[in-house]
Design a protein that fits this description.
It is a single chain. With 170 residues, the chain is an all-alpha fold. The chain is built from six helices and no strands.
């Protein structure tokens, strides 16, 4: 059995800064929620999750399958959610994407958008169940946050696609 890294025709492995770009973009997306933005209603979508899903759906080899756990831990530390909630939800989102990819032979952009919207809703609802008491009246705000995240997913996809092109050119 031969190692693919020593194959003579295999492309050279990417340099460390090129490999770190997906990680850095997800971390930057998670840090966007920590910006001091004054709003009457908290509609700021989970940008870290948007970027993570965009990387996973656009280029499945950019992030390893286990990358959702440490990136979710960083998001938990930055966002103030209970420790482990994004770790669990983001890892489950990656597993659900794997299950969907086993069923679908081909995907187009619209299917990616529907998959991402479903996973965003799953993570927002799961975060509400984990972090907020069930008697709290946050359902309208949570619905608006999910809609805003679903509408901003194409923007996150565009940014990730641009970063992936720059990364492959480097």
């Amino acid at each position: 059995m031969s190692d693919t890294r020593s194959a003579p025709l295999a492309p050279p492995p990417p340099s460390p800064p090129v490999r770190a770009l997906p990680w850095l973009t997800v971390i930057t997306g998670s840090l966007l929620t920590a910006l001091p933005i004054v709003a009457t209603v908290p509609l700021l979508p989970p940008f870290g999750l948007l970027v993570l899903l965009a990387w996973r759906l656009l280029n499945q080899h950019a992030l390893r399958r286990w990358a959702a756990a440490p990136l979710g831990l960083f998001d938990d530390l930055v966002s103030g959610q209970p420790l482990g909630s994004a770790v669990l939800l983001w890892s489950l989102a990656f597993l659900l994407i794997e299950l969907i990819e086993q069923r679908l032979a081909f995907r187009d952009y619209w299917q990616d958008w529907v998959i991402a919207t479903g996973l965003i809703a799953f993570c927002v609802i799961g975060g509400r169940v984990i972090a907020v008491p069930l008697g709290a009246h946050v359902d309208t705000t949570m619905l608006l946050q999910g809609i805003a995240a679903a509408l901003l997913f194409p923007v996150a996809t565009r940014v990730v696609a641009w970063a992936d092109i720059k990364r492959s050119a480097a």
